[in-house]
Amino acid sequence: MKKSASLWLLAATVVPGTTYAESGVNLYGIVSSAVRYTSNLDGRHHDQVALVSGGMVGSRFGLRGSEDLGGGNRAIFQLEAGIGSDDGRAAYNAFFGRQAWAGLSGNWGSLTFGRQYNALNNIGWAFNPLDQGWGNFWSDPLYVGGDIFFQDYRINNSVVYQNTVGPFSVQLDYGAGEQPGNQSRGTTLGGGVKYQQGPLALGVAYDQRSSTDGTNTIRNYSVGGSYAFGKATAYLGHMGRRETASDASFATSFIGLGYQLTPALHLSGAYYRYQQRGAVTTQFQETPILLGSGNADSVALVGDYALSKRTSLYVEADVVYARGGTVGRETEYWAGTPVTDIDSTTRVGVMVGMRHQF
Question: What region holds the Porin domain (predicted)?
């Protein structure tokens, strides 16, 4: 729930000489923090207790606004900053690191320019059983193997077109690589379609990103669906990734259920199956280490209790059992150091937190 604020006077002081008659600006945000216990975080049986920013949703604040231009057209913009609710730092190494864009909208759809989400994020996240419309959370099982299926899902220097026609929502996006002398290196290209009719929702999305040196292209895709019946919603999905510079490929499949037990209490649970194949390496080492094939199973449960329309408490529990090369990906992502001398590892986590919206 975003609370509208008449902040056009404030906006006018930020941009001298600009008037905002017939315009509106919304100030909104979410602050979410949690205490999380994780066992065997590094594959060496070292546990951790931490105050984590975000918890079940990334903390943020932003400004969103529009101006009526007549003829059914509007000028629109959004600036959104990610914040660490544990230490107050800006996220993503930028002040408005989550989103920063402006554009036009009308009956024909919208065309926007700036730092924006690609179609894979906007459509793929909709079918994550634990999402509930909030997006990713701290220990989301979609991070098994590292943040790979949605890595770099915010596109800099991008142009995004969106439109909804009947039950279909469409997005096309392009990000300029801005490499001198070459129009293809560093570029991103993607799109997706979502179908929503009554209780049924289906979606498919694709994204590809070329490296700035032209040696590798990463291709991600997502397909999913959901069906609501009574107080419950069932989810099913599959995501994949392939890197052209090697034969490395990744995939995750999931199934889950959400249930509104009472007007205040929502419960959800899901199972995820992750696989990696080929010449998979570490993600963050200066000299990549070959890890190879592997797989993992994960189960997660979430309970979300609304104290009011804007404030909620939540509890989450998850377990991940990784095997083969996935052990190295898991331990590097969560603890910083890849473990390569053991065949399997189990990580268990429990998180309790609070979320407030404004």
Answer: 11-318
| Cβ atoms within 10 Å, residue 308 | 10
* The total number of residues written for the chain in this structure: 358
Report the alpha-carbon distance of residue 249 to residue 297 in Å, rounded. Answer: 17
CB atoms under 10 Å from CB of 292, counted, come to 16
Which range (36-40, 41-45, 130-134, 163-167) has the least confidence? 130-134
Contact 249, 257 (CB under 8 A): no
Nearest 5°: phi and psi at 292? 80, -165
Q: What's the pLDDT tens digit per position in 326-335?
A: 999 999 999 9
| H or E stretch at 327 | helix 326-335
Among 84, 97, 29, CA closest to 54: 84
Two structure tokens written together for 156: 């800099």
Rg (CA), the chain: 21
Give the separation between CA 6 and CA 15, rounded to whole angstroms.
16
User: CA 52, CA 86: separation in Å to the nearest integer?
Assistant: 6
Closest-CA residue to 327 (of 311, 338, 335, 317):
338
CB-CB contact of 339 with 43 (8 Å): yes
Walk me through the domains of the chain, giving residue ranges and CATH numbers. Answer: 29-55+108-357 (2.40.160.10)
> What secondary structure does DSSP assign to 147-205, as a single string?
S-SSTT-EEEEEEEEEEEETTEEEEEEEE---BTTBSSTT-EEEEEEEEEETTEEEEEE
Give residue for tokens 């994949």.
Answer: 240
* Beta carbons within 8 Å of 142's beta carbon, 6+ residues apart: 128, 136, 149, 150, 239, 252, 254, 272
15 pLDDT band, cuts 50/70/90, is: very low
Helix (H, G, I), strand (E, B) or coil at 103: strand
Sign of the CA dihedral running 285, 291, 294, 296: negative
The model's pTM is 0.88
Distance between terminal CA atoms of the chain?
7
